[in-house]
Amino acid sequence: MNRKLVCFNCAATSSPIWRRTLDRKNNICNACGACVRAIPIVMLY
């Protein structure tokens, strides 16, 4: 399973762990996922 993922927030294409947005519709990288857990308003969506 070799998917080409792109972060919905920052457009990163490489991440050690991929996460989902709070609405579970889009992929986000690990760094953006950590930010949304700390401060949910930071995300662009």
TrEMBL record:
This is GATA-type domain-containing protein. InterPro entries: 4Fe4S_Fe-S-bd (IPR017896), Znf_GATA (IPR000679), Znf_NHR/GATA (IPR013088). GO terms for molecular function: sequence-specific DNA binding; zinc ion binding. Residues 18-45 form the 4Fe-4S ferredoxin-type domain. GO terms for biological process: regulation of DNA-templated transcription. Residues 1-33 form the GATA-type domain. Keywords: Metal-binding, Zinc, Zinc-finger.
